[in-house]
Amino acid sequence: MALTGDIQIRVRYAETDRMGLLHHANYLVYFEQARTELLRQLGHSYRDLEDAGYFLVLTKVEVRYKKPAYYDDLLTIRTTVARTTPVRIEHHYQVLRDDVLIAEGATTLACVDRQGQIQAMPEWLSAAK
User: Fold this and answer.
1) When you count CB atoms within 10 A of the terminal residue's CB, does the N or C end of the chain come out lower?
2) How many domains, in total, are found in the chain?
3) How much is the pTM?
4) CA distance 115 to 15
5) Of 17, 48, 72, 113, which is the active-site residue?
6) Could you tell me if 24 and 31 are in contact, meaning their C-beta atoms sit under 8 angstroms apart?
7) For the domain that residue 31 is a member of, what is the CATH number?
8) 17 included as an active-site residue
9) What pLDDT is attached to residue 127?
10) Spatial CA neighbour of 93 closest among 16, 38, 11
11) Could you give the strand order of the β-sheet that contains 55-65, starting from the edge strand earlier in sequence?
């Protein structure tokens, strides 16, 4: 069974455009927040990883927008670890409002060292599924 976690985020006024819609770029911010919380669910933090010399860099991102989100909407971001390799981790996201899918996306992150060279992830992270 895949590792999955949910967080809730309320759309803030500053995250909307003049039409009152959640600006498209903020979905990426929400995805990052959801990934961070999923990592905490495993008992670790990005700070722990970076302090140990592991850095996760975004190599691919995609978002499919289905319905708009508006100021003050309470959204659920569902994050799933879709695939791991020794050096890469892929996440899938569902953005829900009242259990209705309004956006979905995916990211791929690669693990690098302090010099930006590809390196193997810690075993506990590459085994996360």
Assistant:
1) N
2) 1
3) 0.94
4) 34
5) 17
6) no
7) 3.10.129.10
8) yes
9) 81
10) 38
11) 4-10, 74-84, 88-97, 100-112, 55-65
